[in-house]
Amino acid sequence: MKRWQQKIHEVIFGYHTTAGRVFDLSLLVAIVASVLVVMLESVKDLEQHYGEEMRIIEWVFTFLFSIEYIARIVSSPRPLKYITSFMGIVDLLSLIPTYLSFFFVGTHSLSVIRSFRLIRVFRILKLTHFMGGAQQLATALWGSRHKIIVFMGTVSCIVVIAGTMMYLIEGGQNGFTSIPKSIYWAIVTITTVGYGDIAPQTIFGQTAASILMILGYAIIAVPTGIVTSQMMADARRLGTITCSNCGEEDLPNRSRFCLNCASRLNNPPDQK
Amino acid sequence: MKRWQQKIHEVIFGYHTTAGRVFDLSLLVAIVASVLVVMLESVKDLEQHYGEEMRIIEWVFTFLFSIEYIARIVSSPRPLKYITSFMGIVDLLSLIPTYLSFFFVGTHSLSVIRSFRLIRVFRILKLTHFMGGAQQLATALWGSRHKIIVFMGTVSCIVVIAGTMMYLIEGGQNGFTSIPKSIYWAIVTITTVGYGDIAPQTIFGQTAASILMILGYAIIAVPTGIVTSQMMADARRLGTITCSNCGEEDLPNRSRFCLNCASRLNNPPDQK
Amino acid sequence: MKRWQQKIHEVIFGYHTTAGRVFDLSLLVAIVASVLVVMLESVKDLEQHYGEEMRIIEWVFTFLFSIEYIARIVSSPRPLKYITSFMGIVDLLSLIPTYLSFFFVGTHSLSVIRSFRLIRVFRILKLTHFMGGAQQLATALWGSRHKIIVFMGTVSCIVVIAGTMMYLIEGGQNGFTSIPKSIYWAIVTITTVGYGDIAPQTIFGQTAASILMILGYAIIAVPTGIVTSQMMADARRLGTITCSNCGEEDLPNRSRFCLNCASRLNNPPDQK
Amino acid sequence: MKRWQQKIHEVIFGYHTTAGRVFDLSLLVAIVASVLVVMLESVKDLEQHYGEEMRIIEWVFTFLFSIEYIARIVSSPRPLKYITSFMGIVDLLSLIPTYLSFFFVGTHSLSVIRSFRLIRVFRILKLTHFMGGAQQLATALWGSRHKIIVFMGTVSCIVVIAGTMMYLIEGGQNGFTSIPKSIYWAIVTITTVGYGDIAPQTIFGQTAASILMILGYAIIAVPTGIVTSQMMADARRLGTITCSNCGEEDLPNRSRFCLNCASRLNNPPDQK
Questions:
Q1: How far apart are CA B77 and CA B92, in angstroms?
Q2: Beta strand pairing status for D251-252 and D240-241?
Q3: Chain C residues 85-104 with CB within 8 Å of chain D
Q4: What does the pLDDT look like over C62-90, one tens digit per residue?
Q5: pTM for the complete prediction?
Q6: HEC profile of C138-156
Q7: Rg of the Cα atoms in chain A
Q8: D231–C229: do the CB atoms touch at under 8 Å?
Q9: In this complex, do B247 and C269 lie within 8 Å of one another by their Cβ atoms?
Q10: Which one of A103, A217, B203, C118 is CB 3.0 to 4.6 Å from B191, fit for a cystine?
Q11: Tell me, what's the pLDDT at A124?
Q12: Does the beta carbon of A153 lie under 8 angstroms from any beta carbon of chain B?
């Protein structure tokens, strides 16, 4: 790997140098700005007045991101691995629509996919402060995955059965025209979103809906309890010590003796 | 009990053998697929185009589930107990509608009850990973049942009284045509679902509704607090033992020696 | 106090004897049944068909509750204190409407106040199981009252200011006809109820509404956090021991010496 | 600083003397009353009947608040610092609109800004009881700021991408006329507000919306978990000290002797 490659790699992928941080910040601003342009382009009024200007700005951003994409490939120690990685694919996908709209007419509607480039801001999570926070959240969610799957499975079953029942009770004339639509209504209801585009009209339907609402209102406590208790268990584990004799981990930090080998512990007072 | 019965029993009810797991997984796929067919059958457009195909698929699934049902009965050590168990009844109920629709015209609307067969997927919870998660959730909910009943009772009273008041304040011309309907509105409001099919129009009604909303928004904290604190208390209790020598409590249950007095612990490995 | 008074008192106010429990349960059933009649009476269809029957049932319940009310007064050691207590007033108020409707025409609309007699079911909380749960909930809510008031005050201010801003941004033509109505909208939005009877139409209004929604979504975490941490702090306090030497309370139950007088503690292993 | 200045300062800024508390309470009542007048003035009916009276009341309040504002300036040890402080600016801003409406016609619509003077009630938080609660809430939120930013960033990305997808799926004819409007819908949905002014009509849109709703329903657990675990970690940290002899941690901070080794603790009474 050449010296100039290493230099570029440090700036683009790293975040320890000043240059690296300035690059990250500029990229963040550029991504957000380009997504804003995509969003505003979809507003009819603005498109008619500033359409030309916005297309020019879009081309500038696409040009910059193209250079960045090439720089990432050439500076990467294993270019193919980068190209086929999730972030590499997102980087490429956020460039393609602009080029496509140049060559083919009618692909403009596709060009809104460019707003998916917002996913790229997650790179900035490399910034250490937030990495810690993100890590803890991810750990808590991962640690409670079994309970979350059980919970989600139960909610899915409730929603399918409630949807079927409402299809039977209310029927097509009240908006419950099919079971999938009724299930959609049940999801709208149990998550307490409640659009009101479909709502029960009969007394039996309203009674069944009431039960579903109260259920939804009460069981929101379950995922909350899962995540909270997982987070706190994780937090507690952080405050533990390790035996220097046998290497046993996760000892409560009030321990005077190792719970595994019974050797006396020297509890350094400065440990966090 | 004969050998072939034991063999079948192992596959159908067990999950320790490879055959048992393959069976469970196939059953899961079959149940979900058959429920999907029931759902799609209720969509008018699809029914008109693929009605015949979907009825054939349904008969195939019903045939397979019938074989499974018979296999469960013959391989069960106590067939009658299985038939009268909750799961046994669900198994039977999910077969009947298809046969009924064959013999009687007009029972087709009943046939959507087949989607209740989704309940059968809960068998798969036998898979150990999820069993643990489900167990913990159930324990937490059961342990806090008194508080949940008190909470639900209080919410019920609030909802009835709020409904009555709104019936008085708003009256029939604004959609609050009867007390049951007003109570339905109160449930829609306190659970923060908020369809908007019935909404207060007068200034007094809107004030009363505001109070109810804030109440609903605030008291969601109560079930959450109940379940969370119960879950954490359970988590703490499950994981600890007490030293019989010095009385030190809250020792991690993998402990071989007391962390306080270093005496050896007789840690029965099977304690829960 | 005479013997027969004591006997009645035991049955009506007590819950230790079998007679007392049977009375409580009968009362619970009677209250719920009578409130159901009040509710159904407000449904036009039912009123026209079964109006006469329901009025008779109502008179039977009123008669029974009147007897109960008199029995409570005569058996009470201090009748005046009972009559002027909250529950005494509720008991009386739930009787008056029926008698009023007999003497005065046109007071029938007032008679729905009878459904307030549902408050009377809270007597049943005397039943010990639920008393514990209710007590813990009440303690947790009372212990965190300062934080809850601060939270509610902050939400009130946010709602008033958001309402004023939306009145300026959207104005009367989009449904925000006055500041009180805009505040009503803000409450509907921040509590995530979202009826949709009033909704922002302009791009600025929708942006402001988005901020309010995200705020409401995020700060629901605050009351939940308050109540949960209070509940767990309360739960932890339950697991403490008291020094038999100096009477110091709330010692962590791993204590070997009193933290106040340094006397050795005999940590009885069976304490809860 | 003169004696009379000190006297005024004590009453206006202090809360230890009776006069100071009476002043605080009067101010609280005056602020709330004046904001109520602003609110009621915006109601057309009331404005037509009591417009004159309300304007007089407004002038009385403005006069009183002007005196208060001058008193704050003259009694402040560093007047310029007060004037340029956040609270000083709010104090001034809540006076200006009334004077402006006197000199210029057409600035009346601006006068609703007066309701922003509600912010001034936060001064009352000086009252010690609530200060503690507010402090704890602020500490918990500040301590978990990194996690909250990560969470908010993730939600923002989800909302932008979901909005773009719905714009593609549903298109303008179903109300999703532009990406910003679709993002507004995504926020309304993920926060479970659900106005229903825009709602998906196609089967694909409803499926995508269902996923977004369930996501919103599930991830509400994350901020709740963050705040709750932070609050409890804070609560634990505030209340404990460590023995300098044996290193035992988590001792209640009223401890005079170590609960493990009984050595005397030097417990500085002012430690937080």
A1: 18
A2: antiparallel
A3: none
A4: 999 999 999 989 888 888 998 988 888 88
A5: 0.83
A6: HHHHHHCHHHHHHHHHHHH
A7: 27
A8: yes
A9: yes
A10: A217
A11: 67
A12: yes
DSSP string, A84-151: HSHHHHHHHHTTHHHHHHHHSTT-GGGGGGGGGGGGGGGGGGGSHHHHHHHHHHHHHHHHTHHHHHHH
List D residues 121-140 in contact with C (Cβ-Cβ < 8 A): 121-122, 125, 129-130, 132-134, 136-137, 140
Query: Which of C177, C178, C248, C258 should be substituted to probe chain D, the one whose Cβ sees the most D Cβ atoms within 10 Å?
Result: C178
Rounded Cα distance, A132 and D145, in Å? 12
Q: Measure the CA–CA gap between A269 and D246, rounded to whole angstroms.
A: 10
Cα(C216)–Cα(C193) distance, rounded to whole angstroms? 10
What is the separation of C-alpha B82 from the centre of its chain, rounded to a whole number of angstroms? 21
Tokens read off for B122: 């809960």
Range with the poorest average pLDDT among A69-83, B124-138, C29-43, C89-103: B124-138
Strand partners, B251: B241
Q: To the nearest whole angstrom, how far is the Cα of B8 from the nearest Cα of chain A?
A: 28
Enumerate the β-bridge partners of residue A251. Answer: A241
Residue D225 structure tokens: 């978990």
Give percent of chain D above pLDDT 90: 18
C-alpha to C-alpha distance for D8 and D76, rounded to whole angstroms: 9
B157 to C192: CB separation less than 8 angstroms, yes or no: no
Q: What residues are paired with A241 via a beta bridge?
A: A251
Q: Which among C212, C214, C21 is positioned nearest to C123, based on CA atoms?
A: C21
Angstrom CA distances, D167 to A40, B157, C161, C201, stand at: 13, 44, 32, 18
CA distance A139 to chain C (A): 20
Rounded Cα distance between A95 and B126, Å, is 48
Identify whether the C-beta of residue C79 lies closer than 8 Å to the C-beta of residue C71: no
Contacts with A176 (C-beta within 8 Å, 6 or more apart), sequence order: A166, A167, A170, A182, A185, A198
**CA pair distance D157, C190, nearest whole angstrom:** 21
Contacts of A181-189 with C-beta under 8 Å, sequence gap 24+, read A181/D206, A183/A159, A183/B39, A183/D210, A184/D206, A184/D207, A184/D209, A184/D210, A186/A158, A186/A159, A186/A160, A186/A162, A186/A212, A187/A159, A187/D210, A187/D213, A187/D214, A188/D194, A188/D210, A188/D213, A189/A162, A189/A213, A189/A216, A189/B193
The interface predicted TM-score (ipTM) is 0.80
Using the Cβ of D223 and the Cβ atoms of chain B, whether some distance falls under 8 Å is answered with no
Amino acid at D187: I
